[in-house]
TrEMBL record:
Pfam families: Glyoxalase (PF00903). Residues 3-127 form the VOC domain. This is VOC domain-containing protein. It comes from Williamsia limnetica. It comes from the Bacteria.
């Protein structure tokens, strides 16, 4: 069975968040987006629901993680090449994201990470599938 995935987290400024991820090349499902929520399309089965804290609070009990101090999740997205990893990470830093950790280079796998406008960590990763296939 093929499963869909919906990652849900906060975005304090929906218009700024839309601009940030648009500039990184992402698109949105407008059916599930409004002034309080963005439905970021990762692929045809995976979406990130980015909600204002007030809207997010409608779905949870307890508090919302302070991303300036702690991590609640690491969001990893694949890239087609090492160059694409660098292009996305560099662009994220250029348009307002902040650095998180140093690049990780394991030869067959390469990744970089950044924090988005709300401090959520996004990892962009490339893997040489032929190196791990057998």
């Amino acid at each position: 069975m093929s499963r869909m995935m919906f990652l849900n987290t906060t975005a304090s400024d929906i218009p700024a968040t839309r601009k940030f991820f648009s500039e990184l090349g992402f698109e949105f499902n407008e059916t599930f987006s409004d002034e309080n929520t963005l439905c970021l399309i990762i692929n045809d089965q995976t979406f990130a629901m980015l909600m204002t804290p007030a809207r997010f609070q409608d779905f949870i009990t307890g508090g919302i993680t302070d991303t300036s101090k702690e991590r609640e999740v690491l969001i990893a997205v694949s890239a087609e090449s090492r160059d694409e990893v660098d292009a996305i990470a560099d662009k994220a830093l250029e348009i307002g994201g902040s650095p998180w950790q140093d690049a990780q280079d394991h030869g067959f796998m390469y990744g970089r990470s950044f924090r988005d406008l709300d401090g959520h960590v996004w990892e962009i990763t490339w893997m040489d599938q032929s190196a791990i296939a057998g």
